[in-house]
Amino acid sequence: MLRNLFLGSNNFTSIPSTLTRLDGIVFLELSSNSLNGSLPTDIGNWKSVTNLNLSDNQFSGAIPNSIADLMHLTHLSLSGNMLQGSIPASFDELISLEYLDLSRNNLSGMIPKSLEKLQNLKHFNRIIWKLLEPIIYGNEDLCGPSRLQVPPCKTDPSKSANLLKYILPAIGSVILVSIVVIFLLRSRNTKTELPIQENLPLLPEWRRISYHDLAQATGGFSDSNLLGVGSFGSVYKGTLSTGMTIAVKVFHVNQDRASKSFDIECEVLRNIRHRNLVKIISSCSNVEFKALVLEFMSNGSLEKWLYSHNHFLNALQRLNIVIDIALALEYLHHGHTLPVVHCDIKPNNILLDTDMIAHLGDFGIAKLLGEEDSTIQTKTLATIGYMSPEYGSEGIVSTKGDVYSFGVLVMETFTRKKPTDDMFGEDMSLKRWVKESLPSSLVDVVDSELLNTREREGLAAKDCILSILQLSLECSAEVAEERIDMEEVVARLKKIKTMYLRGPEQE
Is Zinc among the key words of this record (predicted)? Predict the structure, then answer.
């Protein structure tokens, strides 16, 4: 019996009627085609489906109520279509639903209160705005109560006037008090919700960008706009007609695994959102061309800052960068239901914005772990020198592998030595070099420029770097089970930063 069907990124224009008769299908991927017309009314026949992705097609009309018959559905994406009408109230019957994306459609009307009954969805998204963001975005005519941060629904003016005529005299004082309370609450909420707002997409709405738009933005993908070349693609700097500066990652579609890498990045990046992850703005995909449009990082990569003679990072800047990446990994590993393993932590994949805030990018070989999987196996190789022993020898992928790579990254950041440096070989590695030098010979391994400061600052930096390198060794333990997790890493790095800022005389 067919259970998994992957037909994404093709040129299909319709769903065959025979497909809806596959009542044993569990995972159905039909995204990025040219499917048009209404969603099939017998969509409810897929009784066993758990993951349904119909995003980035040309479906129109209303969402059929029969979709509520998919009782086992955990992941549903209808984004990037032309669906109209309201969100069915019957969605509250999808009791297993964890991820819902209805963005970039033409939906209208009130957001049904029944969505709040979906406990798994609410838990998965942690807070109400993150719950509704992939539903609201690009559906400008959706409305609801103000606490959902959406436009209010319009009411009949005559009814409102009659109602006010009877109640206004009686509750005038109450309204006055309420206005004051609401003003105070909104002021407070505005302050606390700013970090969430700054993660919203940078375009007016999520939309596909055409090949022509990208060619024009990058000067025909000219070498003068080339930012870098990776395993599966090239990255160009571009400027849209709106004036927005972007980074365009063009995948080498003729290369093995490049198209799969594109699909993986799309799947991962559309489901995650964090201030320390590179944000996806849009995409462009057809048989011959695939590209991701990403937020532009004006200060380039950590690699550039570590090894260019024209750049320098002090101890605090390096500490802030590793904390940023630790926070990103903590979110990927522990921040939602299905852990994401990045699999390729290295300086070239860490990008710095205008404020020198670090963002983790390049999810081309990332892996999503199932709910019951702590490890999976893969044949995809990561970067030599940063791979954990179990990944390199057996292809075993787990969050502990990312922890190992993070440990190596931290060592490199503070020693300015690559794990593949010529000084390392069979008898000596970066990790062994650091381990054998601590604590007595710390100055022999630390980037010498970090300690060439005033005496007091030098002492503070020395104590700080010693603690950081000791932590990096715990992260890169040979046995996966002996490595600490990223939640503990974040807590300890923040403590180290606090001690550094206090200075040595207050410790």
Answer: no
With cut-offs at 50, 70 and 90, classify the pLDDT of residue 372: very low
Q: Give 435 or 153, the one with higher predicted confidence.
A: 435
E strand intervals along 78-140: 82-85, 99-101, 106-110
Structural domain includes residue 196: no
Dist. CA 269–CA 249, nearest whole Å: 14
Separation of alpha carbons 444 and 447, rounded Å? 8
Query: Using one digit for the tens of pLDDT, what is the confidence trace for 258-283?
Result: 888 888 888 787 778 888 999 888 88
pLDDT of residue 33: 85
Do 368 and 392 share a domain, yes or no? yes
Task: Count CA within 13 A, CB hemisphere, residue 500.
Answer: 23
Q: Does 234 share its domain with 347?
A: no
- Region 7-12: mean pLDDT is 80
Neighbour-count burial of 264, counting CB atoms closer than 10 A to its CB (0-12 exposed, 13-18 middle, 19+ buried) = buried
Place of tokens 């709910």: 371
Q: Quick one: 300 exposed, middle or buried, by C-beta within 10 A (0-12, 13-18, 19+)?
A: middle
Instruction: Tell me the pLDDT tens digit for each residue of 11-24.
Output: 888 888 788 788 78
For position 291, which CATH number holds? Answer: 3.30.200.20
CB atoms within 10 A of CB 198: 8
Cβ atoms within 10 Å of 368's Cβ, excluding its own: 14
Q: Could you say which DSSP state residue 205 is in?
A: S
Rounded to whole angstroms, the Cα distance separating 154 from 151 reads 9
Question: Which of 56, 101, 324, 344 does the annotation list as catalytic?
Answer: 344
- Distance from C-alpha of 150 to C-alpha of 135, rounded to nearest angstrom: 11
Q: Is 344 a catalytic residue?
A: yes
**pLDDT at residue 284 greater than cutoff 90:** no
Which of 295, 323, 341 is the last residue in one of the domains? 295
Which amino acids are annotated as binding site for ATP, given as ranges?
A: 249
pTM to 2 decimal places: 0.60
User: Do 107 and 76 lie in a common domain?
Assistant: yes
As a whole number of angstroms, the distance between CA 319 and CA 142 comes to 43
**Is 175 inside any structural domain?**
no
Find the domain containing 140 and state its range: 4-148
Q: Could you tell me if residue 99 is inside a domain?
A: yes
Of the candidates 470, 280, 453, the residue with the CA atom closest to the CA atom of residue 364: 280
Residue 195 DSSP SS3: helix
Query: Does residue 14 fall inside a structural domain?
Result: yes
User: Do 312 and 415 sit in the same domain of this protein?
Assistant: yes
CATH of the domain at 370: 1.10.510.10
Query: Is there a single domain that holds both residue 439 and residue 410?
Result: yes
Band of pLDDT at residue 120, cut at 50, 70 and 90: low
Token pair of 76 as six digits: 């549903």
Extract the tokens encoding 291.
């590209």
Under a CB-based contact definition with an 8 Å cutoff, are residues 360 and 278 in contact?
yes
Q: Which 3 state secondary structure label does DSSP give 282?
A: strand
